[in-house]
Amino acid sequence: MREPMVESPLEQAVKRLDRAVSALEQRLAGEAPQGRSKGGDLFDQESAKLASELEKSRLREKELEAAGAEASAALGRAIAEIKAALANEDSNEVEETEEA
Question: pLDDT of 54-64, one tens digit each?
Answer without folding.
Answer: 999 999 999 99
